[in-house]
């Protein structure tokens, strides 16, 4: 009996193993025959599926023999259902027809560069972003793109993060989402902390380095980042993403969508929460966000409503780390008050229309509204009453002129407007013309409150010690045209007129009255040509950008001495090529600035530091990047940027406390390096796929020495650094899951101690024989070896 049972068990195992079948095939575009990468192939009843690779190939494993129903879907294509028998004999090729529904790429097409546009750009798709999206902000996800240097106040990429492109910081990088401006109208900056986990709702992202093409919002003075949010999914889906990592970092994301309902409607939603203790002491982050999109999709029209919001609470680590603590106490945080936090929320509303009129015309229009409000709270020890426009407190015979206080500095603003474009393409494709523009208004209240005082005197809770309002109207119109002169040769022109009305009224935080109004009108022309042949595109362009001063330039300077606007003349020339398994880009650039605004140490009439115009400065460099598919298992990619970034002449002012009367001493410099502009930035990426669905990646980054100010003084600099990261990605398609993806990211494998950001200031003090120069450097250290582990389950 035992032998019979044992033989029966072996038979059942054999039968079971025989019944486990694999199904392989390819998914292609029915018209062009090109492989479709990332298409979803699914067997409903058996609950098994796969996603196509870079060759359009897929394999579904562990199928039960017999009749199955196969469903194939891909964005922009009609879904395909096919009944077949498993095992399947022969080569299985599934061809998808492009959908008749209008695609959403029109939404961003007016402000994006195409393959023949004569400017320098890189487009990053959703799949590439997802490889690193384990909770860190978008700048950190872009760390390995050409000429990018990233930083993080908390040291781990969660919380306040930033990036520089070609040495230009975020106040000089134009950012749009679906063509709608994201830069703060007054500071020109982008605060990614207000958009936590936004990468989970991004379909694609394009970085244009240099002036690029005309866009909406703040002037592009170093680069632009053009973001398109998620497009529709053909089928219903659900996704749960969870990550955990060093410094008690967590990310929880839930996404779901209806797919196309009645072949016309779709609703998608995301809910996210990110938290971290940070690498720096008390540099905690508590970030929450959501994204909801509802759309109507017709053959000629798309109408879409996006609503998204981000709410952040971060413990302040803005002060940085003094140089004396770099070796022994890298995680020290100056702030010790338990609620020294930044609290802010932004709600975004976008109503977007895109459509076609006949065979030659495309249109795009959007209404938008952003409501932002929040504050940062500070404990201030022994502050003067006079600093808050308060009288001294008299108690008996004692007069008290200072006390400990807790204050909140508020920003409450509304930003709204409209952007639109219309695109004409001639029947023969010789002309491609875009007329577009936008009109936006910013209305912001700035005020400060005293919420507690050890000795209050004649004060009430939430007394406002400053209060001012600013209104800024920003309008622009542009006309772009590409004309194909002959086969492969294209001429490009782009003319933009931008006008600004900026008014402000009230009392500033330093107690000064700041009432004023400024108007600007800028003309920003761009011209270029490109030539395409045998998979190569040669291009050259000349572009002009003008930029108004920021809010602090108006409020910190005497109104009669407002700095002049900045101007940039930009030349780009290069080649883009792809041949077989090898692709590369090479370009030269010259960015020549007139009246660039920099910190010189000069102070205003109440002792606040101001920026001043320097007549001549420039950035010039060469950028190279490429990728080579060595084999089916091995791929290598690299980029390097070599540059010179110079100010021809400027005067530095240093505070002098060596005498009874405060003065400033001046020093003139020539041919110095622009601050935070390394002469070399490079990256290396190696990918190895030993087996199907397993990817091992080695990522290296080198950034050369940077100066903290514009004096080229080695005592005020950031050391060069070289970091290495390791990523493991594994994907499986178990029963009833479209996929389960596991990602492990080990950052800074070799525990490099480095600082990509900081600041400096100097002053004179009395010395034994002569006055002594004291320089204080502060740094924002990044974490040593750390990890993030994520699991994504897709249904």
Automatic annotation (TrEMBL):
<feature type="domain" description="TonB-dependent receptor plug">
    <location>
        <begin position="115"/>
        <end position="222"/>
    </location>
</feature>
<dbReference type="Pfam" id="PF13715">
    <property type="entry name" value="CarbopepD_reg_2"/>
</dbReference>
<dbReference type="InterPro" id="IPR039426">
    <property type="entry name" value="TonB-dep_rcpt-like"/>
</dbReference>
<keyword id="KW-0406">Ion transport</keyword>
<keyword id="KW-0998">Cell outer membrane</keyword>
<protein>
    <submittedName>
        <fullName>TonB-dependent receptor</fullName>
    </submittedName>
</protein>
<dbReference type="InterPro" id="IPR000531">
    <property type="entry name" value="Beta-barrel_TonB"/>
</dbReference>
<dbReference type="Pfam" id="PF00593">
    <property type="entry name" value="TonB_dep_Rec_b-barrel"/>
</dbReference>
<dbReference type="GO" id="GO:0015344">
    <property type="term" value="F:siderophore uptake transmembrane transporter activity"/>
</dbReference>
<comment type="similarity">
    <text>Belongs to the TonB-dependent receptor family.</text>
</comment>
<keyword id="KW-0408">Iron</keyword>
<dbReference type="InterPro" id="IPR037066">
    <property type="entry name" value="Plug_dom_sf"/>
</dbReference>
<keyword id="KW-0813">Transport</keyword>
<keyword id="KW-0410">Iron transport</keyword>
<dbReference type="Pfam" id="PF07715">
    <property type="entry name" value="Plug"/>
</dbReference>
<feature type="domain" description="TonB-dependent receptor-like beta-barrel">
    <location>
        <begin position="329"/>
        <end position="749"/>
    </location>
</feature>
<dbReference type="InterPro" id="IPR008969">
    <property type="entry name" value="CarboxyPept-like_regulatory"/>
</dbReference>
<dbReference type="InterPro" id="IPR012910">
    <property type="entry name" value="Plug_dom"/>
</dbReference>
<keyword id="KW-0812">Transmembrane</keyword>
<dbReference type="GO" id="GO:0009279">
    <property type="term" value="C:cell outer membrane"/>
</dbReference>
<keyword id="KW-0732">Signal</keyword>
<keyword id="KW-0798">TonB box</keyword>
<keyword id="KW-0675">Receptor</keyword>
<keyword id="KW-0472">Membrane</keyword>
<feature type="signal peptide">
    <location>
        <begin position="1"/>
        <end position="19"/>
    </location>
</feature>
<keyword id="KW-1134">Transmembrane beta strand</keyword>
<dbReference type="InterPro" id="IPR036942">
    <property type="entry name" value="Beta-barrel_TonB_sf"/>
</dbReference>
């Amino acid at each position: 009996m035992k032998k019979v049972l044992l033989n029966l068990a072996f038979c059942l195992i054999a039968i079971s193993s025989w019944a486990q079948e694999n199904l392989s095939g390819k998914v292609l575009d029915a018209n062009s025959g090109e492989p479709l990468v990332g298409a979803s192939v699914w067997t409903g009843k058996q609950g098994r599926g796969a996603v196509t690779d870079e060759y359009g190939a897929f394999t579904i494993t562990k199928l039960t023999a017999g009749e199955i129903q196969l469903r194939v879907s891909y964005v922009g294509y009609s879904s395909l259902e096919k009944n077949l028998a498993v095992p399947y004999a022969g080569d299985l090729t599934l061809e998808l027809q492009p959908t008749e529904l209008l695609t959403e790429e029109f939404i961003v097409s007016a402000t994006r560069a195409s393959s023949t546009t004569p400017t320098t750009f890189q487009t990053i798709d959703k799949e590439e972003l997802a490889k690193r999206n384990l909770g860190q902000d978008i700048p950190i996800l872009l760390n390995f793109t050409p000429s990018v240097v990233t930083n993080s106040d908390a040291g781990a990429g969660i919380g306040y993060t930033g990036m520089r492109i070609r040495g230009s910081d975020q106040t000089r990088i134009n950012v749009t989402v679906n063509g709608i401006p994201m830069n703060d109208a007054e500071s020109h900056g982008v605060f990614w902390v207000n958009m936590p986990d936004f990468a989970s709702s991004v379909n694609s992202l394009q970085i244009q380095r240099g002036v690029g093409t005309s866009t909406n919002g703040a002037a592009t003075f170093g680069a632009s980042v053009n973001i398109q949010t998620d497009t529709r999914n053909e089928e219903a889906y659900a996704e749960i993403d969870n990550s955990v990592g060093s410094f008690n970092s967590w990310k929880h994301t839930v996404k779901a969508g209806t797919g196309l309902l009645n072949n016309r409607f779709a609703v998608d939603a995301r809910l996210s929460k990110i938290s971290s203790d940070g690498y720096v002491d008390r540099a905690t982050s508590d970030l929450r966000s959501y994204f909801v999109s509802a759309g109507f999709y017709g053959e000629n029209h798309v109408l879409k409503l996006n609503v998204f919001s981000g709410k952040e609470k971060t413990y302040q680590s803005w002060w940085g780390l003094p140089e004396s603590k770099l070796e022994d106490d890298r995680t020290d945080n100056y702030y010790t008050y338990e609620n020294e936090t930044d609290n802010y929320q932004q709600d975004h509303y976008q109503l977007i229309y895109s459509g076609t009129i006949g065979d030659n015309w495309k249109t795009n229009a959007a209404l938008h509204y952003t409501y932002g409000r929040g504050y940062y709270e500070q404990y201030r020890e022994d502050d003067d009453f006079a600093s808050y426009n308060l009288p001294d407190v008299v108690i008996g015979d004692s007069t008290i002129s200072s006390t400990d206080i807790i204050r909140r500095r508020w920003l409450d603003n509304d930003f709204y407007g409209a952007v639109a474009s219309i695109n004409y393409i001639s029947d023969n494709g010789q002309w491609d013309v875009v007329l577009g523009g936008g009109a936006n208004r910013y209305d912001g209240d700035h005020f400060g409150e005293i919420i507690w005082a050890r000795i209050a005197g004649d004060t009430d809770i939430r007394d406002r010690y400053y209060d001012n309002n600013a209104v800024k109207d920003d309008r622009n119109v542009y006309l772009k045209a590409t004309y194909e002169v002959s086969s492969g040769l294209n001429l490009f022109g782009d003319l933009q007129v931008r006008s600004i009305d900026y008014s402000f009224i009230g009392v500033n935080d330093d107690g000064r009255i700041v009432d004023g109004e400024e108007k600007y009108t800028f003309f920003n022309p761009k011209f270029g040509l490109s030539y395409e042949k045998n998979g190569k595109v040669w291009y050259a362009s000349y572009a002009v950008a003008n930029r108004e001063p920021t809010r602090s330039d108006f409020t910190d300077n005497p109104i009669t001495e407002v700095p002049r606007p900045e101007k940039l003349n930009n030349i780009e020339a290069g080649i883009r090529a792809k041949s077989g398994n090898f692709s590369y880009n090479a370009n030269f650039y010259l960015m020549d600035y007139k009246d660039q605004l920099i910190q010189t140490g000069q102070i205003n009439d109440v002792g606040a530091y101001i920026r001043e115009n320097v007549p001549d400065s420039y950035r010039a460099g060469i950028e190279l990047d490429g990728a080579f598919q060595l084999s089916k298992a091995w791929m290598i990619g690299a980029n390097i940027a070599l540059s010179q970034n110079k100010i021809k002449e400027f005067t530095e002012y240093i505070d002098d406390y060596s005498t009874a009367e405060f003065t400033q001493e001046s020093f003139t410099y020539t041919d110095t390096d622009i601050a935070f502009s390394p002469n070399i930035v490079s990256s290396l990426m190696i990918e190895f796929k030993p087996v199907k669905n397993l990817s091992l990646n080695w990522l290296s980054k080198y950034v050369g020495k940077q100066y903290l100010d514009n004096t080229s003084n080695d005592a005020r600099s950031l050391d060069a650094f070289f970091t290495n990261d390791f990523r493991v990605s594994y994907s499986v398609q178990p029963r009833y899951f479209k996929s389960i993806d596991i990602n492990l990211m080990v950052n800074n494998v070799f525990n490099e101690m480095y600082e990509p950001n900081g600041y400096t200031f100097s002053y004179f003090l009395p010395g034994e024989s002569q006055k002594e120069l004291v320089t204080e450097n502060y740094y924002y250290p990044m974490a040593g070896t750390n990890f993030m582990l994520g699991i994504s389950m897709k249904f």
